[in-house]
Amino acid sequence: MNEKSFHAFVVSKTKDNSYTREVTERKINDLPEGDVLIRVRYSSLNYKDGLSCIGNPGVTRNFPHTPGIEASGEVEKTRDSRFKVGDFVIVTGYNLGMDISGGFGQYIRVPADWVVPLPKGLTSKEASIYGVAGFTAALSVNALKKQGIYPEDGDILVTGATGGVGSVAVIALNKMGYNVTAVTGKDSKADYLKSLGAKSIINRKEFDKDPRLIDKGLWDGVVDTVGGKILANAIVQTNPNGIIAVCGNANTNELHTSVIPFMLRGIKLWGMDSANCSIKRREFIWGEAKNLIDFNLLEKSIQIVSLEELLEVYPKILKGEISGRVLVDLKK
How confident is the model at residue 153 (pLDDT cuts 50, 70, 90)? Predict the structure, then answer.
């Protein structure tokens, strides 16, 4: 019996239905059954992780629990011939960090079908800097291109642009030659967004209002990470045959709109599912990471924290107080 111990960020539910968080010791045998045991080197803080940390029942129902919807590290034990001990791998999505012990622990154990080999030329640290946010941004960028929206067609709008998905989307779109307009509520981050590649900055107040039935067409494509009125206004401002990639709800789950812009302009609203896409799709998207992103640029916008520091940092992502990416170093 393997009684090896490791450290993990654990959320527990109390008798009065409140929640506590601590970094504590766990045993390998505490982990769920799975084909592959992975020593986690890095994870990242995502909005969904913040919700799990506060016990949101739409994200996590079983406690005590270790959040972390992504992990990069190396195989320590495997029952699947596709992997061998020492392989560097990535796990994102599925039920990791939701109801399966996640990347905020130094070990995870998961089904082999969840595991993606680390692409050549990519380090474990880079994989987690990119992470679910980069993966989701890449799905969104690929959706625009797949539907025939090319750099020469016009402007692309990115909402929630200082967040994890938004900031990576700005970098990737700029690198591909698109003209990017970034929406943010943080005027102090204008220079930061321009350094990532945004050509224009719009304050979110201009979008956070009741939309018209139809508005002047401004955008050939949209990457939306926030939902609500901001998404509703982006919809009515999208040009004929434009694409809106919906990949977040940082503002709200609700969307109040009409069929008018869809009928009159033939625009498409396309949801991005980073949690459940096929392993082949995952391997392709991860393989494209180096081509889509300037990691030297992206690394300038990260904050690196330990598990202990994560106790202080996680509330900020729920308050919209984080720009860029928060990398969790499980070796610290």
Answer: confident
Structure tokens, 98: 């939701």
| Dihedral sign for Cα atoms in the order 313, 315, 317, 319 | negative
> Rounded to an integer, what distance in angstroms lies between the CA atom of residue 87 and that of residue 272?
29
User: Among 140, 137, 134, which residue's Cα sits nearest to residue 221?
Assistant: 140
3-state secondary structure of 110: strand
In the chain the first and final C-alpha atoms are separated, in Å, by: 27
Contact 110, 96 (CB under 8 A): yes
Residue 32 sits at φ, ψ, to 5 deg, of -65, 160
Cβ atoms 217, 238 nearer than 8 A? yes
The pLDDT value recorded for residue 291 is 87
With a CB cutoff of 8 Å and minimum separation 6, the contacts of 120 are none
Q: The pTM is what?
A: 0.87
Would the CA dihedral through 155, 133, 186, 271 be positive or negative? positive
